[in-house]
Design a protein that fits this description.
Largest sheet: 2 strands, antiparallel
Helix content: 55-70%
Radius of gyration: 24 Å
């Protein structure tokens, strides 16, 4: 029986609508023209961030912007000394995401995957639409907080929802497809941002696309595993039998959803769920290791992702290459998980990140436009994206159904801390030798690979746990011809 799948909403990359066109401006004042006349190089090297910022040139007074596409950074005077305000807008998105994930950590396991996911998704849609009409920086920051809150609740809920509908043999494929939808959304955004000159129109179009994608979730049923965990067996069977009829399979017997007896298993209180981490040290240890891994991969991803425009002159080309690398990552992740398993794939991804960052420390010019550091960071994006896909699947399979929503929310919350720091870390490339930043990234990536190898169990071929007690006795699935799977 194949499950229904959910499509990811179009992904939001704020860097495309907040881009600062440091190479697209013209002189206006005598001060600026004097600097241009005394410049020894060509005009290409003059019209740069260095010239503008080192000489304290002022927009509309010393120079005028001449970009082909608008951005709110230009509209609101964000450049040079105030450039960190753009990072604040990006970072406050992750503040909202952190608050949303912490607040919803028990909601998924209490109210269900579908309800909470829909609330988060439509909250993100409304806040994105509001951003198209924002008139100042503080309004944009407020809407970004709400947007981050909604998006991450929706993303986390959708993934739990998908994994609980997907049988073991197809779970790797489902995770890979989920991973592909992210760069596909980015590709759509890049295309829209390239065609449409106004950043407000871009945001308006993206909010409409996200609204349409979220509406289809209204027609997808709740997770049958969630209903079974809540002992609402009739509702779970109704969903499963509906799917069985769709695929011309026989109906399931009424007694197929027998769950083992456990005292207070159906208790939903936060205190009880937290006590379970003390009662089951295996679950606590795994969760702590996963929290560290999630933080690191998010730090790498957003620290490098928000710095892409600094690695290539054409922001659309650089973001496009980044999206292409993520598609490659999804395909690679599927192949590696299928071949070597979940645990070794995560170790390979972290090790690859460390090697790429190490290569990026070497100063080698490959052409007039490209250096070894850019190529190495491009390859690193593949490993980072591969790790992002892998860790979602790995965390879902290591977590029991009763706590899966909470554990994924907590782990994703730790990732939001890394995401918050990421945009600021990208600015270190302007002030600190890049070898210091890349060397630090590479070292902790290797440590994460070692932690995975020493402290986490491989879930390849293992049944998904329903309760914390199952973590001690997970068993391999044996495919028996003629058995009816429930």
């Amino acid at each position: 029986m194949r499950p229904r799948t959910l499509r990811s909403s179009t992904r939001w990359k704020n860097s495309l609508t907040s881009y600062i066109p440091y190479s697209q401006w013209e002189c206006k004042s005598d001060k600026c023209f004097s600097l241009l006349l005394n410049h020894t190089g060509d005009n290409t090297t003059f019209f740069s961030r260095t010239t503008m910022c080192s000489n304290n040139l002022l927009a509309d007074e010393d120079f005028v912007w001449t970009p082909t596409h608008s951005s709110f950074a230009v509209d609101w005077g964000i450049y040079c000394d105030t450039e960190t305000q753009k990072s604040s807008i990006n970072s406050f998105y992750f503040v909202g995401a952190f608050v949303g994930l912490v607040g919803s950590s028990t909601l998924f396991d209490v109210f269900g995957r579908k309800k909470v996911t829909l609330v988060g998704g439509f909250t993100a849609v409304v806040s994105t639409l509001g951003m198209a009409f924002a008139q100042d920086l503080w309004t944009m920051i407020g809407l970004r907080i709400v947007q981050g809150l909604g998006v991450l609740i929706s993303v986390t809920g959708r993934f739990v929802w998908i994994m609980e509908f997907t049988p073991l043999p197809n779970r790797n494929i489902a995770a890979a497809l989920c991973g592909v939808t992210w760069p596909m959304g980015t590709a759509v955004l890049i295309l829209v941002a390239y065609i449409v000159n106004s950043w407000r129109t871009v945001v308006f179009i993206i909010s409409g696309i996200c609204f349409c994608l979220h509406c289809q979730l209204l027609f997808v049923p709740e997770s049958a595993r969630f209903f079974a965990q809540k002992r609402r067996n009739d509702e779970a069977l109704k969903i499963l039998n509906k799917m069985a009829r769709f695929y011309n399979n026989p109906p399931l017997p009424e007694n197929c959803l027998q769950l083992e007896a456990e005292e207070q298993r159906n208790e939903d209180s936060l205190a009880k769920k937290l006590r379970d981490f003390l009662r089951f040290p295996v679950m606590l240890r795994r969760t702590l290791v996963l929290i560290v891994c999630w933080f690191l991969v998010s730090l790498f991803y957003y620290g490098l992702g928000f710095g892409w425009h600094k690695m290539s002159k054409n922001i659309y080309a650089s973001q496009g290459f980044g999206s292409l690398s993520e598609v490659l990552a999804s395909i690679s992740c599927f192949a590696f998980i299928r071949t070597i398993g979940r645990k070794k794939t995560q170790m390979l991804a972290f090790s690859g990140i460390g090697v790429c960052f190490g290569l990026a420390m070497i100063n080698v010019k490959l052409s007039d436009s490209w250096q070894l550091s850019q190529i190495a960071c491009l390859i690193a994006i593949v490993f980072i994206a591969m790790e992002f896909i892998s860790i979602y699947l790995y965390t879902a399979e290591l977590s029991p159904t009763s706590h899966r929503g909470m554990i994924l929310s907590v782990c994703s919350s730790s990732a939001r801390i890394g995401s918050f720091a990421g945009p600021y870390i990208s600015h270190l490339f302007d002030y600190v030798d890049r070898r210091v930043v890349l060397g630090t990234f590479g070292g902790v990536a290797v440590l994460a690979a070692l932690m995975t190898g020493l402290m986490l169990q491989d879930t390849t071929g293992l049944d998904i746990p329903e309760s914390p007690g199952d973590l001690q006795g997970k068993h391999k699935i044996q495919d028996k011809e003629g058995d009816q799977e429930c």
